[in-house]
Design a protein that fits this description.
Blueprint: H1 14-24, H2 27-44, H3 50-74, H4 82-109, H5 116-127, H6 131-134, H7 141-152, H8 154-168, H9 171-194, H10 200-203, H11 214-226, H12 236-250, H13 257-277, H14 283-306
């Protein structure tokens, strides 16, 4: 695609911006934008309520931020450089992450029929008993604190895996991680709207409450203050850590993953157990989370390889332009 060098352009027509945007769109962009459109459309057909109004405004804001960021970056309204790279990274990444908080209002606005009974029946058909109930025999303060620590550390693992990569990584490794993460987020959040449930802690009775201490209280506080409440299928506390473990193992020949991958895998395994031990998830939620992680990783590797040529090509904008390196000011 030939056009005047970026440095000499003085005016940019809306038609040119749109055409350039469409030419430069990556698969990651298409997934993120389609997701925001879906979520906005989902709430638009929900019954009218205060929750629906908040969810609509939330979703519209996320969509607008993403669209404007993509137009500025992919439409080449902004010249190559740190500003364009930063605008793109922030505008495409954070709205998908923040869409989780939209679910706190969107899910009840949909007035769903909960399917916990069917999920429990699947657990019992597969295992004879749902793990949340079976784990009650280990319900002691020491064990609870162990699993609660790993459940709570999920948020720190998310930040540690995604934020440094978003701003500092590049190339194939960055493309794989970001495509995998956007797949987990978008498919997972859509799954919440299609398979609504509250989990074992609210859908069944237990012989005794969970006997925890500091970390268990932190988990409860976090879920109560920021949780979407009906976000169980698939288990993203399973999908994200599993994706990170697969990613770290796949890049174990590079730093820091040559020594960090066993740590990531250990945390992932404990988080998966914690989701059921602490009564948040059914076993089938975890199975769905594992399947989602494996799919996301496989798809991400395929997409990253398919789009690798963009980093060397001057015909289309790279998927992730460097943030900390000098970039060319012209493209032929």
């Amino acid at each position: 695609m030939h056009r005047p060098p970026t440095a000499t352009r003085t005016t940019i027509s809306p038609a040119t911006v749109l055409a350039t945007t469409m030419a430069n769109l990556s698969i990651h962009d298409r997934i993120a934008l389609a997701f925001h459109v879906f979520m906005l459309g989902r709430v638009m057909i929900a019954p009218q309520s205060a929750d629906a109004d908040i969810a609509f405004r939330f979703g519209l804001g996320l969509l607008l931020v993403s669209v404007v960021s993509v137009l500025l970056a992919r439409g080449e309204v902004l010249r190559p450089g740190k500003t364009r790279s930063l605008v793109y990274r922030v505008g495409i990444f954070f709205p998908v992450v923040l869409s989780y908080f939209q679910l706190r209002y969107l899910l009840p606005a949909l007035q769903p029929v909960l399917v916990d009974g069917a999920l429990r029946e699947l657990d019992e058909a597969l295992l004879g008993i749902t793990p949340a109930l079976w784990f009650n025999r280990f319900n002691t303060p020491v064990v609870v604190e162990w699993v609660a620590f790993f459940y709570y550390s999920y948020f720190y693992l998310m930040a540690a895996m995604l934020l440094p990569a978003l701003f500092l990584d590049r190339g194939q490794r960055l493309r794989e991680l970001m495509v995998g993460a956007v797949c987990v987020a978008t498919i997972g959040h859509v799954g919440y709207t299609l398979v609504p449930g509250v989990g074992p802690h609210a859908a069944m009775e237990f012989p005794e409450p969970i006997h925890g201490g500091f970390f268990w209280q932190q988990v409860l506080l976090t879920v109560e203050s920021a949780g979407a409440q009906m976000d169980i299928f698939p288990s993203l506390h399973t999908a994200y850590p599993t994706l990170y473990a697969l990613h770290a193992f796949g890049w174990r020949h590079t730093r820091p993953f040559r020594w960090a991958w066993p740590i990531v895998a250990f945390f992932a395994l404990n988080m998966i157990v914690a989701t059921m031990f602490l009564r948040w998830h059914w076993f089938v939620d975890v199975l769905a989370g594992l399947a989602l992680a494996i799919f996301a990783r496989t798809f991400a590797v395929y997409v990253a390889r398919r789009e690798a040529w963009r980093d060397e090509s001057r015909e289309r904008q790279p998927v992730w332009e460097p943030l900390l390196e000098k970039q060319p000011t012209e493209r032929s």
